[in-house]
Amino acid sequence: MEDDNSIDRTGASDFVIQQILDKSEYYNRIMDSLIPFKEKMEHTQDEESLLKLSNELQLQLNRMSKLKEYAGYIHELFRIIPSRSERLQQAEAYFYQGKFPEMDEVLDATKIRAEIERQNEIRFSAKDKEQEQKARIRTDHKSYELIVKAFYRYTFIEYPKWYEEVFDLLRDAEAFSTNVQAMYELGAYLKDTDEREWAFQLLNDAYVISGGIEGEIGRLYEAKSLWAMGILSRRENDYPEAIEYLRKSVKIYTDLSETNPAEYLPMTSNMLTVLGDCHTFSKNFSVALVVFEEAVNIRRKLALYGNWEESINLADVLDKLATVHLCLGRFGEAVPLYEEALRIKEGHIEKNLYIILESKASTLYNLAITHFAAQEYEKSIRRTKEELVIRKQVQDIDPFGQLPLLARSRALLGDLYLYTDRPEDAIREREKVVKLYKLLAKCSGDKYLPNLGEAVNHCSNLYFRMKSYGKYFLSLQEALEIFRKLATSDPEEYLPTVGCLLGNVCHYYERVAPNKKKAVENARESYKILSSIERSETAELAFTHVKRIIGEV
After folding, report:
1. What would you report as the CA-atom Rg of the chain, rounded to the nearest whole angstrom?
2. pLDDT of the residue at 150
3. What is the percentage of the chain residues whose pLDDT exceeds 70?
4. N or C: which end of the chain has fewer CB within 10 A?
């Protein structure tokens, strides 16, 4: 339930935010707009039309998600800004009435910018410190007004040039008033863009300035800035630096939790979860284990007295802890944790059917992988089939998003059937995988072409094993064509596969359908490719084979 962009964006319970949204005509219009989509999808049989409807539905769902994120964040913003201008008070009143467009209208950016200019003129020409201080405070107020305005605009993801408008508002808020809030908000926004160097500088400045602010707010912005710098470092794959920033953020939130546990314990667990992810990505599994165990302990306490979302957050962290045990080969420790996460999710499905079903399916897949790694193949088959049933349910809402996940799970099921000596079942599943990736490749250009190539190649190997040589050769040729295409744009990645597949074609003409001329032609092309690259074990076997064929000529 947590990700880079949602951490530290909410300061209210789901119940409070939902009360605000329920009053909003805009939110209710979005809810009503979902009904025709679902009705059309129920009566649409054509897969391409269904995927198109699915993408349109996801846009609407994204708008809902963004609005909920916005409402939580603005609630938090009104809580922590130090004082209120008359305009902010009016905007806040509209916000809690669910009158979001009215709030947007009150926050007229043109007027606010003009007022800031006037206050800055007074500030810089002031003859006494009291007058200068009053002008600075008024400028700060108006900076906050621009920030609230920006995050209102941020919710309108379909709004023309919304990205540029939000950037302009946040940039002006920071330029006109160098308060820590404005620095942090612009930096946090830019961290998701190409302006990462600028973002890092702003966030670092916010962190430094926060250290000079006494009390809770100063510590809070230190923690928030460290978190954002940690996320930036993680995206650059600089895990040691990311871990250092996140570790400091965890320490601050832990300290704040001692005096205000209700507000900051969830944030502490959030930070621990991101920190644990960084240790996992950098393969520091033993450290990740300790971090996730601490996060789980906090989530257990919160789940005892919190709402259903706290229980789901606990389940999500249990998943992560179980995955670390899986990476360490501790299958006996991983399975009970995954099963506990499943029980929690099953107990709350009625609260948010789509999200929890999706999360439950992910846990089932992880559990299936764990049983597979422990060579408990029948248990893995059972869990994979359970996951596929759920994926089909979720597909009613999100067909396109579920296709790659269905393909992944059917591929696993195909492997499991092979390990349990059911080759016909295995090829049936693998053929379904090919069909799914063909549909994805057709609808998404070349994005899924590597997956399709691998799926076709797996099928060809199964056909060979089952002595279906006609199908084997056709699949082999199809896989070769796909990887040749991929190799034109990324030869380093895909040429080795082309070389190996040519070796398989050579073997086909040597042993299955003898044709010495074609066997030698393919052997020479394979040799030319494989002799020029660093070879894996598989490529070395192919290289040895084609060298022999050429040597016999």
Report:
1. 28
2. 87
3. 93
4. C
Q: Pick from 78, 99, 84: which is nearest to 23 by CA?
A: 99
pLDDT at 14: 63
What is the reported pLDDT for 334? 97
Tokens 């989530």 belong to which residue? 299
Q: Which two tokens stand for residue 182?
A: 């404005």
For residue 541, what is the enclosing H or E element?
helix 537-552
Q: Which residues of the chain have pLDDT under 70?
A: 1-15, 38, 41-42, 45, 47-48, 50, 55, 83, 155-160, 396, 553
Does residue 11 contact residue 263 with C-beta atoms inside 8 Å?
A: yes
Per-residue tokens: 327: 């990476």
Furthest-apart CA atoms within the chain: distance in Å? 99
Number of other CB atoms surrounding residue 304 within 10 Å: 10
Distance CA 542, CA 506 (A): 10
- Looking up tokens 């089932």 gives 364
* Cβ atoms within 10 Å, residue 392: 12
Type of residue found at 264: Y
Residue 319's pLDDT is 97
DSSP 350: G
pTM over 0.70? The answer is yes
At 400 the three-state DSSP class reads helix
Closest to 177 measured CA to CA, from 126, 154, 143: 143
In whole angstroms, give the CA distance from residue 11 to residue 416.
45
Q: C-alpha angle 540/478/476, rounded to 5°?
A: 45
Helices 469-489 and 449-465, axial angle in degrees (round to 10): 150
Cα dihedral sign, 311-317-320-326 = negative
Q: Please enumerate in sequence order all residues whose Cβ is within 8 A of that of 421, keeping only pairs 6 or more positions apart, or say none.
A: none
